[in-house]
Specification:
Elements: H1 8-33, H2 35-61, H3 73-166
Length: about 180
Amino acid sequence: MVVGAFPMAKLLYLGIRQVSKPLANRIKEAARRSEFFKTYICLPPAQLYHWAEMRTKMRLMGFSMQAVKPLNENAAAELGAELLGEATIFVVACGCLVLEYWRHQAQQRRKETDRHAAWSTMRDEVDHLALALEALQDRVQAAALQSAVDELRAQMREVRAQLCARDPPAAPEAPPKE
């Protein structure tokens, strides 16, 4: 099963939309029922959206408009409720993206910290091994000197033995008797 090839971003987006749709629908319904919500929350963004859309369309078609006729209250309330619902979905999706970004950054920092700790551990281990190597080199050098001294002693014994074999020691002379 290939998990990496699965489009996780699309699945996440679809999940966010499915979760936030009921919330957006509740907000829309509250906007339709509540006069305060409709008047102060839904109508101003809807009228602004309608004004910007109409000005843009008219300019693209080459007309110059002085004033845009506002939407009637029911159409504006419906458009405002739709805008509010879409804004809710957008805010929830952006929140999820921000949380995912923070999680990813924390994971990257944790990986970097682990990598740095491993590097420090390896550096300490290399330093320890360098000290051990230096101690071993000292021991080998001392052992080499000792073996050289032992070898020289053995050679001196051989030379003495050879010298003694060639010239037997002279017998001690007795002192003359008078």
